[in-house]
Each structure stands twice: as C-alpha cells, then as structure tokens.
Design a protein that fits this description.
With 684 residues, this protein is α+β, with helices and mostly antiparallel strands. Strands 14, 15, 16, 17, 18, 19 and 20 form a seven-stranded antiparallel β-sheet that branches. It has a five-stranded mixed β-sheet with strand order 2-13-10-3-9. Helix 12 (446-457) crosses helix 13 (469-477) and helix 16 (521-527) crosses helix 17. It is globular, with a radius of gyration of 31 Å. The structure holds 2-(butylsulfanyl)adenosine.
Amino acid sequence: MLMHGKGRVPLSERVPKEIKKEIERLVKELNYHCYRYYVLDSPVISDEEYDRLYRHLKELEERYNYVLPDSPTQRVGAPPLDRFEKVRHTEPMLSLDNALSYEEVVEFDRRVRRFLDTEEELEYTVEPKYDGLAIELTYRGGLLYRASTRGDGYEGEDVTQNIRTIRSVPLKIELAGRVPEEIDIRGEVYMDIEEFEALNREREEKGEPLFANPRNAAAGSVRQLDPSITASRKLHLACYGIGAVKGMEFGSQWEFIMWLKEARFPIPAIVRLRKGVRGVIEAIKEIEEKHTTFPFETDGAVVKVNDFELQRRLGVKTREPRWAIAYKFPAHQGTTRIKEIIPSVGRTGVITPVAVLEPVRIGGVTVSRSTLHNWDEIKRKDIRVGDTVVVERAGDVIPHVVMVVKEKRTGKERPFPIPERCPVCGARVVREEGEVAARCVGLNCPAQVQERIRHFASRGAMDIEGLGEKNVELLYSRGLIRHFVDLYRLKKEDLLELPRFAEKSARNLIDAIERSKETTLARFLYALGILHVGEYAARLLAKNFRRLEDLYNVSPERIVRIKQMGEKIARSVAAFFNDPENIKTLETLKSLGLRITNPDYEKGRKERLPLEGLTFVITGTLPRPRKEVEELIEGLGGHAASTVSRSTDYLVVGEGPGSKLQKARALGVKTVTYDELLEMTGRG
Ligand code: IVH
C-alpha cells in the first residue's frame, strides 16, 4: 500500500531497490525518534540531527516519487477541507457515570458485584480522567486509516488529516506478529495548560477571541478545516479505550493498555491495576494527589472493571456502561460573602474591581480576595457588595467568583458602579466605546507608575530579582524612583537608608539592577509596557527590527506588514515610538549603560523573505528594466510603490533621479543604489 507524490503514477516498480530500502530505513528511524521525543519525552538525538534525516528522506521521496504511508512527511501538508465527512462508530462511544465521593465509589463496586452475583473482590483499573476531546483512531492492516471525533457517540466527524499532525499518534502499529486486522482505539486529545495559556496570550495580542479552557482549545484545534492550524497547536493524546477489533483478542483493560504501550501509543500518565475497592480508592487518592503536578488538566479518575468478559456481562444502561465510573475530584470552591469591592489600578491604567471577601478556606488555602475581572463581568453575574457568592480557586490562579447565591439576598446588597474618579490619583476614569476596560487617564497616577516599574522589573521583562511589588512601593513612597529609568540611578547608599535593607540585601538589589542592563530587544520591548505588546508581540518585533533605533518614528503601516501583527498593536507601537518624550526616555536608558542585543533578529531573518515588510520606490534609470526590478522586489516579499511617503523604507536611486529624491530626503527616507538593493536581497 503506497501513497504517491504529486503525479500519482505508480512508479514504485522503477525505484531502485537500494533506494526503497534506504527510504524504508529512514521512515523507521524517524518514527522511532518521533516516538522517543513525543511519547517517551526522552529523545536520543538532537533536533538538528532529526531535521537532517527528515530532509534527506523528503529529498529521496520527491526524487523517486516513492512515499510510504507512515512516512513522517505525510503528517503535514494536507489541503484545507470544505467540511468534515460524517463517520459512524462501529461501537458507540459512551459517556461515564460520575461518583462524587469515595462512598459512591464503594457503592459502584457493590452494584457491580451484585449484578455479577459475586462476593469476590474484583479487579479494576484506575486512570486519570483527561479533560480533552474524545477521539477514535481506526487502524486497518496496522496503518492509521481514519480518526474521528466522538460526536453524539454514534456518529462523529472525520478529522484524520488533523489528527495525523499530532506527532504522538502512530501512523503505523509497529509490533511484529501482534497487529490486529482492524482496530478502533479510543483516547483523549488534549492541550497542556501552559500551551493553552501561551496560545491565549498570543490570541489576545492578535485581538482574537480567547479559549475558555484547555479542553475548548483542544477541541477548537481538532475541529479545524485547515490542518496547518491544527499542526501549529501543540496537542497530545492519551489512549485508554478499545472499540471494535478484528483478528485479535484482548482479555482485559490492563492487557490492552500494555499492548498499547508496546505498540508505542501514548497511554495515560498513571494506570493502576487494583484488586478490591480499597485498592481502587488508594489509587484514586494517588491520582488526586499527583494531578496538580500534571502539565494537563484532569478533573477526576476513571475506574473500570478490568476483565473484558465481565465488562460484556455488565453491559450498558442507556448511555453509560455499568462497568466504569468517573470519580470527580471535589471542585475547589467555597461559599462566602463580599464585604466590599475595591477598584485596583494596573500599569496601563485599567481599573479592575476586586472583591474583598470574608475569609474562606478552599482546598487548604484561605481566600480573602477575588478578582471580578471587569464591569461587564459584574453586570453579567449581577454581583453586588454584600452578596453571598461561590468562589473558585483552580491551581495557582487568582480565585474568581463563579456565581451569586441569589437566594441569600436580603435586599441590602448594593451594586458597584464604575468609579468616576481614579481611587489612587483622582483623575477621570473613562471607558471607551467597544472596550471592556475602564481606565484611569492620569498619566502620573502613582498606581500606574508603580505597576509599570514592577512590570519593567518582572521575570519575562528586565528580570530584576528582588524588585517585587513591596520594594517598588517602598522605593516609590520614599521618592527614590518615579520612573523605571530611576532604577539605573539608584545607589547602594540610598537603599541603606530604608528600613528593609541591610548591606547584603542592598548590594544584591544593586547587582541585580546592574545585571539587567545586559538585555535583549525582545525583553526590553516587553518591559516598556507598551499597550497591547505582550511577550509574543515583543518577540515578533525583535525578529523584524534589528536595533531599537530602527523602531524610532516607525509607521503603523510598517508594523502591520509584519505577518501576525494586528492593527491594534501596530497603532499602539507606532504611537509609542513617535512620541518624542518616549524616545528621550529610551536614549536616557542607553546613556545609563543599557546594552541591548537582539538574537531574535537572526531567527526572524531565517523565517522571512529577504525584503519582507519593506516598501521600495524607484527613481531614475536602473541597469535593468524598472518592471523587472519591481518584480524582483515583490518576489522577495517587498512592496514596490510608485510614490514616496513616510511609510517608504527605501528609495532606489538610478541615473538621473527625479523629484522623488528630494521628497525622500525631506522625509528622511533612506536611499540605496541598485547594487545595494541586490546586496540586500543576498544576490549582490
Ligand atoms: S473511558 C465507556 N477513560 O471522559 C467509557 N474516558 O465522560 C468511555 N475520558 O467520553 C471512556 N479520560 O472523553 C475513559 N481515562 C479515561 C478517560 C475518559 C477522559 C473522557 C472521554 C469520555 C468521557 C466520559
């Protein structure tokens, strides 16, 4: 069974034997390394080495038009679809009954044994419950034939081309002698929490709607008509179930899981086999304890009768099997009362309403504050001062109010409107059309200033260790810093006068500030706290501008030409770099010893066409016809315009230039000769 390249001509007969062998060897080797990297998380070769082998395979495949169906090159490159085909599952994909306490698990075990009419202790498997999207993988003759979503349990959608892009999904079952003719393997596609957060940050910067949780992000990524989008999301798979199978038999869940593992499928992070319900509850506790350290979200543990024959006897009641149950971890929620709501001012002036709560213990932690996000949220949930509310604390994130317990209202609760004046500086508070956020317009608002300094010093920014919220507040209140520039003017002696500093701590802070002078453009741009410029956008800018100075007076049009940059960010960046006061601040920082390197630019250059994002105008006679030069510029990603304006990057000057040259000079547009242009394209 072969797939063919573009021509789809069965040329395999004409491929020399040793080439076939070489291709087969490369596919095997690459698939093995893919497995080491994506399933076992323990690679044995470097990324460069992998890329080298991959490129070699790709060249041979193209040259000889000989492509194996499990070749790693077949994971990407499928064209977008118009719609998904429907797929009927041979065996329905069921859902699970929940147990909300250990007692309910004991009750489940009792039910199972009563049904089977046995007093004996039964064997169960226990696995984490993955919070993702259920998928069925169908293999025929050992090759991945189709992947489908669960849908309504009976009929799902064909998402094969998307699932192929997930590197941990085997394209072929590699197990000598123990490959079923046909098998449906079920599992969960999920996204790690960190990956989900990074994706959302990126989307926020681009002004795209955010995903509510990793599950939605995973589902949204799989249900994409364009597989290149799925390929760009880091998705994982955990296989835990079996559907229809032909040509082989499995006796139990444990046996099946062990087979999956041997066949190089990713299996759940923990799978335990236990005899008797006590052991089951111990395994649940183990998973409950460990689950907060998992990189992915789990909201429970799944308990399954191990023996497949017993499973068959137990059967299904409507939609849930009698042989399995999902134990749900207690949600990290508590009920308490909102004592007051206080507006808190952030570095961009955004005012966030924060609820001050009557302290409540949730999951072993005392919670006394909760963010209310913004006034839309307050309105949507109808939150008032004095309300009794359900508060949720998930992981390390700031607790949030889930809902108001309206039955507890006494009539004394008061709504909390947007304040007219900033609670810190007294300036006006505005809320612009179409914006969710209310902002303080006071430029010198101390809250904003302190928050901006704290952001400047924070981890992903200038990374000044020891300069957290408390120290910023202290330095600010003593008048030692009014702006982040002042950090570089601080002396050890200044610090020694403060209550919290002694010789050593003062030295440490001054050293940390000194070290931060050595930084990268991406970090520095992020540290500046330009509106809408998060870490991702800052890196993108660094990839496209070699030096900080290249951003001075930049036009929004120039920024928008960068792939992935939206207009909102472009306007904000341009506004920042066209403000003479800001430029002065940057120059002051440089004069205080800031040294900015830009390792990202090199990376950006590799990802980009040589003239990408640049606008050229031609004047005078060039050695080659003008049309040809324009085509060269456009072909290399540049834009050839006919009139000089502020957004022109270069004027290409030939013999006998016209008035465009004067205009360029007047506007400060750079000029290049034809030879210099060729040099820029790498052809000189
Ligand atoms: S077994 C009949 N095992 O939970 C049993 N399901 O609520 C079917 N899930 O649709 C599934 N982790 O998407 C099983 N270790 C696990 C699971 C798991 C997550 C999901 C699955 C299923 C849903 C049922």
